[in-house]
Amino acid sequence: MNPLMVRNLTVAYHRKPVLQEVSFSVPEGKLIGIIGPNGAGKSTLLKAILRLVPAASGEVLIYGKPYKAQRKLIGYVPQRGSVDWDFPTNALDVVLMGRYGHIGWIKRPGKEDVKLALSCLEKVGMENYAHRQINQLSGGQQQRVFLARALAQDATIYFMDEPFAGVDAATEKAIISLLNELKAQGKTVLVVHHDLHTVQEYFDWVLLLNMRVIGHGPTDEVFTVENLQKTYGGRLTFLDQGKLLVKHE
Ligand SMILES: Nc1ncnc2c1ncn2[C@@H]1O[C@H](COP(=O)(O)OP(=O)(O)OP(=O)(O)O)[C@@H](O)[C@H]1O
């Protein structure tokens, strides 16, 4: 069964459409890149799938059922800029929030939950920062903590909004190897991604988006010069041998 099926999804902010009749589905156990220019509606797509913004019309099914019935299967890593980092909490607590779906909001996390949260921090190389306030972490470290929280959720399908934004090369490597680990466990990971140079290396499958779906499918078939030109319009230039140069938007 498809982990995610989106049919005719239309979303508007103040009556101005941002996504129009978006339809696609994704296969299980793949790393999927959501690619498109600034303002294409990539974050909005994730938020509409997760019911964080209302859809004007359309349908979203996660493993054949609506979001509400499948909440426990879903992990979300929001864009770093969209989070209030001054909220007084430490890294360990942020990761423990990932466990609330399993333990319920009323019960306190037990020893096992803390142990698991610490092991997730260790996986992202942040075990020494467990008790550090989140507003005292660097951007890349905050991103790692958010990934640890997603790991603690133990989800089946993950949605990540620009996990590589503003991180250094070492953190980017750490994140991509983590994503590959999730994939090896049979999980499906959708990632909003900006850097066209790494798309072919990172993703098995892509969704090209610019208000509408320009293309979706295996990267080899869909990530073509023609489709990219349709997605980015005149903002792309191609150098020799198809090498890409993205003009700043
Ligand atoms: N809360 C909001 N209220 C009104 N308009 C919004 C809101 N959020 C986003 N938009 C508008 O919707 C469009 C799509 O935004 P969205 O953030 O989904 O794009 P994106 O593809 O994720 O962009 P980026 O690559 O810059 O992050 C943009 O024109 C944006 O200005």
From TrEMBL:
<dbReference type="InterPro" id="IPR027417">
    <property type="entry name" value="P-loop_NTPase"/>
</dbReference>
<keyword id="KW-0813">Transport</keyword>
<dbReference type="GO" id="GO:0016887">
    <property type="term" value="F:ATP hydrolysis activity"/>
</dbReference>
<keyword id="KW-0067">ATP-binding</keyword>
<dbReference type="InterPro" id="IPR003593">
    <property type="entry name" value="AAA+_ATPase"/>
</dbReference>
<dbReference type="GO" id="GO:0005524">
    <property type="term" value="F:ATP binding"/>
</dbReference>
<comment type="similarity">
    <text>Belongs to the ABC transporter superfamily.</text>
</comment>
<dbReference type="Pfam" id="PF00005">
    <property type="entry name" value="ABC_tran"/>
</dbReference>
<dbReference type="InterPro" id="IPR017871">
    <property type="entry name" value="ABC_transporter-like_CS"/>
</dbReference>
<keyword id="KW-0547">Nucleotide-binding</keyword>
<dbReference type="InterPro" id="IPR003439">
    <property type="entry name" value="ABC_transporter-like_ATP-bd"/>
</dbReference>
<protein>
    <submittedName>
        <fullName>ABC-type Mn/Zn transport system, ATPase component</fullName>
    </submittedName>
</protein>
<dbReference type="InterPro" id="IPR050153">
    <property type="entry name" value="Metal_Ion_Import_ABC"/>
</dbReference>
<feature type="domain" description="ABC transporter">
    <location>
        <begin position="4"/>
        <end position="236"/>
    </location>
</feature>
